[in-house]
Specification:
Four copies of one chain form a homotetramer. With 133 residues, the first copy, chain A, is of the alpha+beta class. The first copy, chain A, has helices at residues 2-5, 8-12, 43-59, and strands at 14-20, 23-29, 67-77, 85-94, 99-109, 115-128. In chain A, β5 (99-109) and β6 form a beta hairpin. The first copy, chain A, is elongated, with a radius of gyration of 15 Å. The first copy, chain A, starts with a helix and ends in a 5-residue tail after the last strand. Chains in contact: A-B, A-C, A-D, B-C, B-D, C-D. The A-D interface holds A 71-72, 74, 98-99, 124, 126 and D 71-72, 74, 98-99, 124, 126. β3 (67-77) of chain C pairs antiparallel with β3 (67-77) of chain D.
């Protein structure tokens, strides 16, 4: 399985919790090695996680054997990552023959249970048919 | 020191090798846990490293005590990350009072020593003066 | 009025049809000079319109006299612009003290009245308080 | 010719001044209808021009009959557009089979003749071979 072949997600501590067609969700327990210099979630982890959920969302819509790779991705950092647990979701905004345009969000819940969005992502995933791979 | 306070860089194995005003360089030895599903460097690591070198490049141009944070970042993935060692550089393309616009590159050298660029980044770093932080 | 001071919107033929706090809508009747080389809506017009609705959405949330300017913007081109009339909406995804993060969409309706999204935008708008302007 | 088929460039007043393989340059004389609300060059024009020079740069590297379209584009607005004449250049940063990654710049010269960069662009251009178009 392609998602299992990914060695970086478990190293990071990111777990996929839900796989639907065109939509993937996962979680990360915040650990000290995830901190940037001011104690918040490192932006690089945010971008790594968004890359995963956006990419897996694209994978979930291709045929067995087709390849998917990230052409480009943008992330807007909306709020500081201050939670103890982070949640992420990636979805295919617009599927296509050559590309899947994806978006993603990473968030935590504050003490009152309110969802605070840390980052919003927007990525272009290329689909390479297995015949050309 | 702010760069030392960053816990994620050593966890990832990324080392800063050069710090100049407005320009930062570093290296990563490729390890199995850095792989994505096809054995190449994970795009999330590429984005994490670019975020570091672009952010540190911005840091290198602010006063002691000022804060820097990533407002947004885009990455274009130009080539597959196939090397055994990866190099990264981040620089301030246009410094400013409120923002430093930064760019970054991540690359490896092929067997003939040719530089193959894996990714090019473009990021907006906000500067928060210590008086307002 | 700031929106009226904009000379480019009328030149382009783009009309604002709705102004709410944090959300702006408008329309463009497709004319021959809006074409790119294959007869579709020129991507530069799409980007110009998204810049307007995203920027105006940010303007709608600042105090009289504060300035707003686009720091950066990304656009994903989802479908060819084949309509006779185009619609656009811009909204503030996340307001802030220093920035308003905005998004926008441009679309047309096909012969059956179905909404076909041509482009999705994501932009960072800086807010400069009048005291500092 | 494809560049001539583009109706929007002449409407805008943008002229291509140089065409080389993988690199395109052009100029715009600043007119009142190019103004945004504070009298500077409208960001939408900047984005339209960058889309043109980046797209034409990609065109210059494909076979007669192949199609090129913008998948996504990002623009960073570095300085206010205050000139009387604006210059733009687009180039292919990394050509490829399926995509050409392009960059572009728009600038003016201040009274002392110094180049002031108004915006830097980064775009993904898809190449559709004529056999599939």
């Amino acid at each position: 399985m392609r998602i299992d072949a990914n060695k970086f997600a478990p190293f990071l501590g990111f777990e996929i919790t839900e796989i639907n067609e065109g939509e993937i969700a996962g979680e990360l327990d915040f650990k000290p090695h995830h901190q940037q210099q001011n104690g918040y979630l490192h932006g690089g982890i945010t971008s790594a996680i968004l890359d995963m959920v956006e990419g897996f969302a694209a994978y979930s819509m291709v045929r067995e054997g087709d390849l998917v790779f990230t052409v480009e991705a943008k992330i807007a950092y909306l709020n500081r990552g201050m939670g103890k647990k982070f949640f992420a979701k990636g979805w295919v905004m617009k599927p296509g023959k050559r590309f899947h345009f994806c978006e993603g969000e990473l968030w935590y819940e504050d003490d009152g249970g309110k969802k605070i969005i840390v980052a919003k992502g927007s990525a272009t995933m290329a689909v390479i048919p297995k015949e050309e791979a």
